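pasting for the record
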Amino acid sequence: MTEMPFRSETLSEKQREYMKLIAEIMEIRKRGERPLAFVRTYGCQQNVADSERIKGMLEGSGFGFTDTPDDADFILFNTCAVREHAEDRVFGNVGALKNLKRRHPQILIALCGCMMEQEHVAERIYNSFPFVGLVFGTHSLHHFPELLYSNLVDGRRVFERGVDDKKVYEGIPVHRDGSFKGWLPIMYGCNNFCTYCIVPYVRGRERSREKDVILSEASQMIKSGYKDITLLGQNVNSYGKTLETPVTFASLLGKIDEMDGDYWLRFMTSHPKDCSRELIDTIAGGKHISRHLHLPFQSGSDRILKAMNRHYDRKKYLETVNYAKERIENVSLTSDIIVGFPGETYEDFKQTLSLIREVEFTSLFTFIFSPRKGTPAEKMDDPIPASEKSKWFRELLDVQEEIAAKRCASMVGQTERVLIEGEKEKTGELNARTSGNIIVELEGDPELIGTFQNVKITQARNWILKGELI
């Protein structure tokens, strides 16, 4: 079945008028010299990118920003529904705001993001956290100013979720958190419906941004001095399928790569079923594209992959990975793994271990299965006790630690071009990252943060390299 194209619209003048009205109101309500907002983001990079757009609208509404909730006039938590642990943290941290609201009743407290698109969560917030005045889901970001204005003027709680008009909204102002590393969303939503995943239910169906809009934003970021740009989507490999004139992700990536400048280009996340040879060839021939491919395989067992509704098998995954190894020089491969999926046996798990040994990943993001309310996997029979899954998990980490240590050791003596990203608080050392997404620690002047440098690798640990500036 062919997907219907999604329409793009620009942030309306109506919303910009609401931003002006909010600025006038907050000039009166502010507690200090300027109204301040505290924004905390949970979860994935897509949530970070959403928060940067919310902060752009807040900035347009007269707000500055603070890292301390106690100093804020407006507090927003942008939430994640992918893991139970993330949800528990949100509820705990929201509960902790009760006393702050009691001391300063004029503070506005809001929740948004993926958790808010779940009915049972919204009901719990409504009933148990009466001091939360504004709740909105992922589909309402484009008229956040209107929702905030309503809460300010009426004083009534505003709850909006489940309103997906299947459009992509452009022209939303962005307040980026970083000055040299930046996120660039190219699409939203997901069509894959993996049985364990809540994302399609809370972010909606897949829809791509127009190619020219993305190219323009990428060009602006490069001209503004961004050195590390990550293209974002739940499945970037299926970018362009919902556009009126379809475009492949590989062609979009290649067009950005052609832009002049000194920068690295990354992307996430890739679904193995859509990872084409065209994409791998584009990475191999790129001037700026990172030699890092994050390709989640989740399980090495075909039986479990089918139960997960992943639409590929072990053979296809290995064919893709082997082609990437063949074509991309010094490619760094990373992946996601779920341990203890419902119905998984130790024999299934051993197939995951064997795939890890065969591929030799640089690093892995590993999780013990966490059932998400509303997904098919939540209702699957899951007889393996948590204690047994924890043993498997430890075994997996031991195998990957051995592989990572071997890979890092092989890099000692090599010279790597790295991006200096920050300074370690306790030691004063600098943190850097290679094109292959491997962390390097080194001595150096903090003024180097945000620059590319050549570093000789002098020491290897299990996950991190040590180096010295050349």
